[in-house]
Amino acid sequence: MILGLTGGMGCGKTTAAGMFAVLGFAPLDSDAIIRTRLLTDKEVVAAIREHFGAGVLAESGAVDRGRLARRVFTDEAALRWLEDLLHPRLYAYWRAAFAAEGSKSWVVEVPLLFEKSLQNWFDFTVCVASDPVAQLARLEQRGLPAPLARQRISMQLPLAQKIELVDFVLLNDGLPDFLREQVARLVNSLSTL
User: Fold this and answer.
1) Radius of gyration over every alpha carbon of the chain, rounded to an integer in angstroms
2) Best CATH choice for the domain 32-104 from the list 1.10.10.10, 3.40.980.10, 1.25.40.10, 3.40.50.300
3) Model confidence pLDDT, tens digit, residues 70-127
4) Sign of CA dihedral 112, 129, 16, 140
5) Based on the number of CB atoms within 10 Å of its own CB, is 169 exposed (0-12), middle (13-18) or buried (19 or more)?
6) Boundaries of CATH 3.40.50.300 in the chain?
7) Are 173 and 15 in contact (CB under 8 A)?
8) Helix/strand/coil percent split, the chain, to 5
9) Above 90 in pLDDT, residue 139?
10) What pTM, to 2 d.p., does this model score?
11) Which CATH class is domain 1-25+105-193?
12) What is the DSSP letter of 157?
């Protein structure tokens, strides 16, 4: 079984994925794969340098994610170019993981699941949702200023729309135990399908 886990920034996708992992699901964090595998790949770094120039690289030659983010989140064409570079590689990574361990159940964090029409990759889709005030507070605690957080959130499908599109919704407005109980109930109900 492969679950596609989505939700808005700061809603708790990674927290929920960790809870699924405790219950036997192998987690794949799309953002982490991009950060640690793709943005460190020499071919990807070379393509980014060629397209955006050395200004998005650190002195070491590695991609400076902050500089790159400032560039692409203010330029739709630049963001589309970067996604066209990274997303096929991300999907290939998913395919390889699924093929290597096909008997596992997976939970895949996909922030842009519906924005990129990826729902057909998954047996079921799950959205982690939270109150917008709590969402912004979590993002600010991570060091993302509120105006920048609002800008990035606005580039995603509205949370209410994601909730309408998914198979299951997990509410993350309470204590972690509240989310953990929902994840456990969902896993139990999925095991009977």
Assistant:
1) 17
2) 3.40.50.300
3) 899 889 999 999 999 999 999 999 999 999 987 899 999 999 999 999 999 999 999 9
4) positive
5) middle
6) 1-25+105-193, 32-104
7) no
8) 55, 15, 30
9) no
10) 0.90
11) alpha beta
12) P
